């Protein structure tokens, strides 16, 4: 059946000899990978192949594959944590599965059953459980991804879709831990279209001495101070003012709040960094916007999230494997 999803119960195992060698002191984000990976392929007219958990290795693609020419690829970022009860745990994995399915549908890649993919992911974590760090602050980064591997040029509905999962043990995303970091405010490039980022993200951060960039967006004709914050290169950005709300916020509003002492705290959040306090925002002209608080709110939020992720408290967001 061309429309039927693959099933976790059908996984074929092609296991290699275990080789889990974790040196946490030298662990760099996304540089070390576990022994195995998950892979399956959908071909129009034939459906999904038997899902496989096999050795971590390179993937061969056709030279005309749309992923190479048109960037038809999507992915998710997740983490598995070593719970205090000895079980591996995932953090809100159903949300990641649903978003990956939405992304795949947007690119017209082959559909799949999100629950079946989640069960395949759990099985991969079980298979390479020896790679899961047990120390606090460490975890297993999980990268599900899907891309078009059709054998023809041209942008059209994909006739071949590859779906895979790889895993990488990781430590804190920022070596500084919860020490607040400065952020460069990019008022020229965009996080996404229009404007693009190209090779400008890393260069801009290094030039201004910051480990991250936050992007802004201004409509044609707007003053620079009217530009609204988008997100950083690797995390969302949040501002703690006098009340909690989910809305856009402009450079001008943050500048005025900082000058009046109402910018209590600022922080980034995301799968990779969890929660990262921000000390200041640096504009190209050298202007600084500093948070006035002592970081107590961010520290409290970080502790609460870690308690959930590592299973120190019972919470429906933490899913044991």
UniProtKB/TrEMBL annotation:
Its cofactor is pyridoxal 5'-phosphate. Coiled coil: none annotated. One of its GO terms (biological process) is branched-chain amino acid metabolic process. Keywords: Aminotransferase, Pyridoxal phosphate, Transferase. GO terms for molecular function: branched-chain-amino-acid transaminase activity. The modification N6-(pyridoxal phosphate)lysine is found at residue 201. Belongs to the class-IV pyridoxal-phosphate-dependent aminotransferase family. PANTHER family: BRANCHED-CHAIN-AMINO-ACID AMINOTRANSFERASE, SUBGROUP IIII AMINOTRANSFERASE. This is Branched-chain-amino-acid aminotransferase. It comes from Auxenochlorella protothecoides (Green microalga).
